[in-house]
Design brief:
The complex is a heterodimer of chains A (222) and B (161).
Chain A (H helix, E strand, L loop, with lengths): L8 H8 L4 H7 L28 E2 L3 E3 L2 E7 L8 E6 L4 E6 L11 E5 L2 E7 L6 E9 L8 E11 L3 E5 L5 E4 L5 E6 L4 E6 L29
Antiparallel strand pairs in A: 1-3, 2-3, 3-4, 4-5, 6-7, 7-8, 8-9, 10-11, 11-12, 12-13
Chain B lengths: L10 E5 L5 E5 H4 L3 H8 L7 E3 L5 H15 L6 H12 L4 H14 L2 H15 L4 H7 L8 H10 L9
Parallel strand pairs in B: 1-3
Antiparallel strand pairs in B: 1-2
The chains are: A mainly beta (222), B mainly alpha (161).
């Protein structure tokens, strides 16, 4: 009934991730070492022919094992490109934005319904902003971005940083520490004033869906 | 040479760790991402492809799975699901684990999923002592430490030794 070979960590993690929490907690008493199997791997990706000097990198968004972020090399947000690292196949690529998307402070990459979405201001008008939402169909093809819809116009200066599960767009508001959500379907704007005690530094960049996980991360920190 | 994949009737030869050779149709082999990548990168299909980590018994099972799933484009998903559960039924832990290792090595995601799930389903209701035996894990807890872990998650141990 016993397994003959030593299981590799990633296979073991795969199996254990399918076991209910109650069993996992019980299995903690199997072994100190085995059940703290931290599976963090160092990934070395060689980015050939790409110059990173002078690039400003924005926070990343991950989808299906690929991490995407915007990077720009002209102050403040010019010449923006989309960088991608595939953690499964181990490659790096840098692609251009769709031709009609301008690089701007308000341009951002987010996740929308398990697709990568690019939200970009339609024209530069600080009083009355509209945003185009582009969805990526398949990475790697230049023409793979499809314009989905346009948000707005919304009064004031906003910066979209993510989507809620119900397709509402979350944006920073005009005041510091204010989050605005915009529902495209009904054109409804909700204002979450002081939703949380936002730190005063910088912009809000990303929103993450938080889900609990039992895999510990402590080994790399030792 | 580069795009010989179009020809579906082509066959290639896989060699198990214990030296047995298997003649496989190319479209069946393509269920494995590993083999697909090898073929894409100009590996000659005339060569024998050695799979040093997989014994003949396991490889035969893996190829049975691949064949069913490669030919399944016309058949129903429900039929495939019942094939999958029948395929793993009555399989002992050793065979299951060899399957997981083989599917992991050959990058056959569907097979890895169902086999790992089957192992997970099998161990989830077992006491930890048995799990320790299944995975060949030595107990590195002192009795005090083990008692502390048990105390910490006491509810999880209800009904278990």
């Amino acid at each position: 009934m016993a397994i003959v070979n030593e299981p590799p960590d990633d296979v073991l993690i795969d199996i254990l991730s399918r076991v209910p929490a109650k069993s996992i907690l019980r299995f903690k008493s199997v072994s100190k070492h085995c059940m703290s199997a931290d599976s963090w791997k160092e990934l070395v990706v060689v980015a050939r022919n790409h110059d990173f000097t002078g690039y400003h990198h924005h926070p990343c968004t991950s989808l299906d094992g690929v991490f995407y972020w915007l990077s720009s090399n002209a102050y403040p947000y010019g010449h923006t490109k989309i960088d991608a690292v595939n953690t499964v196949e181990g490659w790096f690529e840098r692609r251009s934005l769709p031709a009609s998307v301008c690089s701007h402070l308000q341009t951002n990459l987010c996740l929308l319904n398990d697709s990568l979405a690019l939200v970009a201001p339609l024209y530069d008008n600080w009083l009355d902003t509209q945003f185009d939402v582009w969805l990526m169909d398949e990475y790697g093809v230049q023409e793979c971005w499809t314009k989905k819809y346009t948000i707005g116009p919304i009064l004031g200066s906003h910066r979209p940083f993510g989507f809620q599960p119900n397709n509402e767009v979350l944006m920073t508001g005009c005041d510091n520490g204010m989050i605005v959500s915009y529902n495209h379907g009904i054109g409804d704007i909700k204002v979450y004033k002081q939703l949380c005690n936002l730190p005063e530094v910088g912009f809000l960049r990303q929103v993450f869906q938080y889900s609990e996980n039992l895999v510990s991360v402590k080994r790399r920190l030792d | 040479m580069a795009s010989s994949i179009e020809n579906n009737n082509e066959k290639l030869t896989l060699k198990s760790s214990d030296g047995e050779e298997f003649l496989v149709e190319k479209h069946v082999a393509l269920q494995s991402t590993l083999l697909q990548n090898m073929l894409d990168s100009d590996c000659s299909s005339a060569d024998v492809i050695p799979l040093p980590k997989i014994d003949a018994r396991t490889l035969a099972l893996v190829l049975g799975y691949c064949k069913k799933h490669a030919d399944a484009s016309s058949s129903k998903q429900g039929e495939l699901n019942s094939f999958d559960s029948e395929f793993l039924k009555d399989m002992d832990m050793g065979a299951l684990f060899n399957l997981v290792l083989a599917a992991n090595f050959m990058e056959i995601k569907g097979l890895l999923d169902i086999a790992a799930q089957k192992i997970a389903d099998t161990i989830k209701d077992k006491p930890h002592q048995e799990v320790r035996e299944i995975f060949h894990v030595e107990n590195d807890y002192t009795p005090e430490e083990e008692a502390a872990v048990r105390e910490e998650n006491r509810w999880a141990f209800e009904g278990f030794p």
